[in-house]
Design goal:
Elements lengths: L1 H17 L4 H13 L1 H19 L8 H55 L3 H37 L1
Helix pairs in contact: 1-2, 1-3, 2-3, 4-5
């Protein structure tokens, strides 16, 4: 059981420096370190090793900070340029849905009237009604898809 206490103390020493430990664990560790010189020495060695590591210079490639700032600014500019277009797209979609819902009964009656006048089977003018709402959505989706492909190609060529 004594080895379990030392193993627990070593785990808590490591966790204390990395993740932090709870107050009861901290109190237990402090009491154990007060009573056990071997674990106190491990704690002191851990503190010394971390202070040495903090003092070591880490060489970074020249211009890393400048390149990183440049990339961040470039990406922020790209997002700012694309945002208004997307906002406008969402506003147009919302208006389209609202107008579509408001005019659906009238368009249905118009298709029904035209279908009966021309003598079309009911299924055919109902499919026409569905296409009346589907085709603009498909065209809009194709435009958005083509725009995204164009931007992706521009980004690939820029790299």
């Amino acid at each position: 059981m004594n080895e379990n206490l030392h193993a627990r103390a070593e785990k808590l020493i490591a966790r204390e420096r990395i993740e932090g430990i709870s107050k009861p664990e901290g109190e237990w560790l402090a009491a154990h370190l007060h009573e056990c010189p071997a674990c106190a020495q491990v704690a002191q060695q851990t503190r010394n090793a971390l202070s040495v590591l903090r003092g070591l210079p880490i060489p970074l490639p020249r211009g890393l900070a400048a390149r990183t700032q440049f990339r961040v600014r470039l990406r922020a500019q790209e997002l700012r340029e694309r945002e208004p277009k997307r906002r406008l797209l969402w506003i147009m979609c919302a208006m389209s849905w609202a107008l579509g819902i408001a005019t659906a009964p009238y368009v249905w009656r118009a298709f029904e009237w035209a279908g009966e006048r021309i003598g079309l089977p009911r299924l055919l003018w109902e499919v026409g009604f569905g296409l009346w709402w589907t085709i603009p959505a498909l065209v809009a989706a194709a435009i958005v898809l083509l725009e995204n492909l164009r931007l992706a190609n521009e980004n690939d060529q820029a790299r």
